[in-house]
Each structure stands twice: as C-alpha cells, then as structure tokens.
Amino acid sequence: MAQKEQHQEETVYNPDGSKTVVFANDPQRTAVEYTTTVQYLDQDGTAVRPEQTYQTRVGHWLNLQAPAVAGYVIESGRMRRLQVRHDQTITFRYQQLHPTVEVRFEFLNEKGEPIHKAVVREEPLDSTLHITAPAIVDYDLTDETQRTVTVTAKMSPEVFHYHRHIIPLELNMSLVSSQMIEAINQFRAEKQLSQLTINMHLQTLSYVRADTQRKNHVLDDHEGLRPSLQVAGYKGQVAEGIDRSWLGTSEIQTAQQLLDRWRKDPTKYAQLIQPDYDEIGLTILADSDGRREWVAVEYGTKTK
C-alpha cells in the first residue's frame, strides 16, 4: 500500500493581511522576503549612525539590539523582537547628552587653608552658575557674596576667601603707620629707589581722608579734599591711594600684611615703585569693630 505523501506547509502573511499556505515540497515555491530598515535617530530626527537593512523571510523573527553611541543615551528600549510580515522601518531613539564639567568650589582662610569642605559638582558645559558664598562661623567673607560663573572646558577652582575674626587688640595705630612707611622704604631700597620722607602737609591730608572713611564706613576717593593741599602750601604733584583691610595681631604684622597686599595690586604696586616720588603721608586707623583698618596714602613729588 503506497504511503500518502507528507507535505510540510508554511503560512505566509501577505502585506494586505491575507494568508497564503506554501507547501515545502512544492517545486513552484519561492521564498517571500521583506526588508526591515533600522534607523538610529536623535531627538531632532537626525541620524546618529548609518541605518541598517535586513532581508528576512516572511514569518521569521528578528532580534534587534540598539548599539551604544558615544554622547547619547537610548530613549527607547535597547532590545526589539519582531516577526517579519511586511516591509517595515524600525526606529531607535537617542537623546544627546550634554557634556559636563567638574566645577570645584573652595573656601579658604587668609593663609590659603581650607576652612570648609570643598563642593564639587558636575555642571553642563557653557552653562551659567549663580553662586552664593556660605556663611562660616568665626569667619568674614572678604570676596563678593554672589558670583556668576560660566562653565568652561577647563575650569579652575572657584575660590572664596575668608578672614578669621580676631579678638580686638589695642594696637598702636601711629606705630602701625610708621611701620608701614618703613616697610615701603625698605621695599623701595630693594628696588634701588629713593627713600620717601614724611611731609606734614601730606600726612595731615592722609589722616583726614582715613578718618572720613572710618566715620562713613565706606571707601571714597574724596577728591574734594585735594584743595586742602594748596591751602596748606604744598606745591608738588600728588598721587593718592586708599584701602580697607584687616588688622593683624601686632603692629609689625599689620603693616607687613598690608604691604604684601599692595604688592599684589597692580595700581598700588605701580605707586610703590614710582621713581619720581620724594615724599609721603600715610595714615592707618582702626575701625570701631576692632578688626578692620582704613588706610589713606599720599605720595608727593617736589616741585623741581
């Protein structure tokens, strides 16, 4: 008895949704294939890598995996499993990552020592930060309280400087002023410049200016005080400087730290090494808080 011929059949799904049964031993059978196009697009629809195409027999399964792309994170699922029934386009969506930069904030005392734990943050490149310096117990902030910073590729640490409260001392401010003039002359000697002598007209003017600032608690050029030089009879050229700083722990230390401060200031440094100056008047007065000082200096050039 002849055996009935066995046929293997496969159901083919057509694009219009109809089905066709294809027998495996049918000599007329042709494999039906469809194209699957895989795209990799960012949030704006721009390709982040070239698309890929797959030719797959109808009814077969495709397992797709989205590749990692530098600078992007995958928004949609990384894995896709689908059965091929028609031509189709599959899209993996990526979100661009904004490059970030490590920004470091440091809080230092007058010696450059940290007095508060540094703050380290990752911030987007080219972003703008508005920073407010924290209050630190027993310290006064010597920089601006608020600062605006643009994040760049190579960021140096953002440093806030503080000065420790000191117990008010009964410093001899006349001695501090004398020590400062002596320190200035010693510095000029190192530069092979002439020594400055004290002129009483300049000294009187420096006292008036320093005292006015101390009473008003504000730095002011006080341009209106210049005519008093002519009234006093001073005939030379005058250059002026004012400052507010912190008292030290002794007369010598107070004068030295003020000189160090001036050496780092381009304008005040230029005055310190001006070869044309012959005379000086300088006054340093303590603020009522016992921690700060108000300074006024007058440099004179004698009429030749």
UniProtKB/TrEMBL annotation:
Signal peptide: none annotated. Residues 1-20 are annotated as: Disordered. InterPro entries: CAP_dom (IPR014044), CAP_sf (IPR035940), MucBP_dom (IPR009459). Residues 37-95 form the MucBP domain. Keywords: Repeat. Residues 182-297 form the SCP domain. SUPFAM superfamilies: PR-1-like. It comes from the Bacteria. The keyword DNA damage does not apply. Residues 1-10 have a biased composition (Basic and acidic residues). This is SCP domain-containing protein. It comes from Lactobacillus selangorensis.
